[in-house]
Amino acid sequence: MEFNLEHIVRKNIWNLQPYSSARSEFDLYGSGKKELTLLDANENPKGDLNRYPDPMQSPIKQELAKQKEISKDQIFVGNGSDEAIDLLYRIFCEPGKDKVILCPPTYGMYAVSAAINDVEVLKIDLTERFELNIDAILEKISNCAENEQPKLLWICSPNNPTGNAPLKADLKHDWQAQNYTHGGMMDMPFAPAFEAEMLDNQRNLDKLFGAFNGIIVVDEAYQDFTENTSFINRLEDYPNLVVLQTMSKAHGLAGARVGFAFASPEIIELFNRTKPPYNVNELSQKAVLTALLQTEKKEREIKEIITNRDFLAEHLKSFDFINEVYPSEANFLLAQVENANEVYNYLRDNGVIIRNRSSQIKDTLRFTVGTRKECKEVIQALSAFKTN
Ligand SMILES: *Cc1c(COP(=O)(O)O)cnc(C)c1O
How many whole angstroms separate alpha carbon 334 and alpha carbon 290? Predict the structure, then answer.
């Protein structure tokens, strides 16, 4: 069935007349703004932060468009990804009527935002190896009547808290990129087994995106820590795809609260009309632009975190009360731990705060990868627990 945006958007949002400021009506943000006599917004004429910020975050979008090789009108900038998550519910889901699909164990905000917006949640668990259960999702969709189709499907990849990537955007591109960075040829032939896997992955993506009439959201908060191809590269192929990324993790700006949604210009227009006009403050916009331009610093910090991740994983595996450390494509490690609650409490009482995920996955703890010193502190605390 052909994807039809108008059919899945809430009527009130489709018909919404958005708030408009004089400056955005005449496109007065950006160049030349200082020479203008600005008497349109009841601001104080004096001060450093006296003006309202650019509602469309134009310089940020310009830089992002360049870096991601997409157009500015495919980008939404929000007050954290959390704002984008909430807006997706408000744009597409009728409170008390619509439903969405989540794939637990996953990020908690999808369910919290659903509850706030009074939207029903259907759960299709990840498989035992934390892969997406595509057949079960397709079956669930086909069991819903045509006028009761789920509006959103949430996929977090790399997934929080498991650390793996349950859905891959393009294995062929992954293969080529890896060959290239390791000095090989871009057009190196594929091993037959890999070729089958690659075709299988592509078939699964086509099946999933084709069968789902709603929006498939791929949350790539941890994309900077994996070599997998971003779903941003598939926006042209799938009109019902929304990709989320954030400044909170690899970019080190969790305190600035800035996240992004990438999608078709039609979907981004719906975000823009629904968001509060001045949703990203001036200080954060400046900080984001600065951080986006510091590409070398970011690459260096990511490399360091990945080295520390390997270091921490090796040490965690050496404790006999830690049964498994799951492979991670993110900046954290999930471990299966005997007496996880006891270990968690002991660490907390000794000033080391980690995340207890045992309520989601039996006996598991999640460790964020910090500096080398912080890794050593957690290892030392675990050693003390052991001899305690
Ligand atoms: C941390 C995280 C985010 C980031 O949210 P912000 O509001 O941008 O800080 C989004 N999704 C997942 C899965 C996360 O773990």
Answer: 32
Worst-scoring range by mean pLDDT, 57-71, 170-184, 299-313?
A: 170-184
CA–CA separation, 156 vs 127, rounded Å? 14
Nearest residue (CA) to ligand 1, atom 11: 221
170 alpha carbon – ligand 1 mean position (Å)? 23
pLDDT tens-place string over residues 123-137: 999 999 999 999 999
Nearest CA to ligand 1 atom 2: 221
Closest C-alpha to 271, from 335, 227, 217: 217
Tokens standing for residue 103? 């794939």
Is residue 87 in contact with ligand 1, taking CB distance under 6 Å?
no
Q: Which residue's alpha carbon is nearest to atom 15 within ligand 1?
A: 160
Cβ of 226 below 6 Å from ligand 1:
no
Non-local (6+) Cβ contacts of 259 within 8 A are: 77, 78, 79, 80, 81, 82, 83, 84, 221, 244, 245, 246, 247, 248
Classified by CATH at the fold level, domain 296-387 comes out as Aspartate Aminotransferase, domain 1 (3.90.1150)
Domain map (residue ranges) of the chain: 5-293, 296-387
On the 0-12 / 13-18 / 19+ scale of CB atoms within 10 A, 186 is exposed
Query: With b meaning 16 or more CB within 10 Å and e meaning fewer, what string describes 41-77?
Result: eeeeeeeeeebbbbbbbbbbbeebbeebebebbbbbb
User: How far apart, in whole angstroms, are the C-alpha atoms of residue 327 and residue 201?
Assistant: 20
Return d(Cα 320, Cα 114) in angstroms, integer.
40
The string of pLDDT tens digits covering residues 33-80 is: 567 888 999 999 999 999 999 999 999 999 999 999 999 999 999 999
Which CATH number applies to 5-293? 3.40.640.10
> Residue 345's pLDDT is what?
97
Task: Provide the pLDDT confidence category of residue 29 given band limits of 50, 70 and 90.
Answer: low
Residue of 160 and 35 predicted with greater confidence? 160
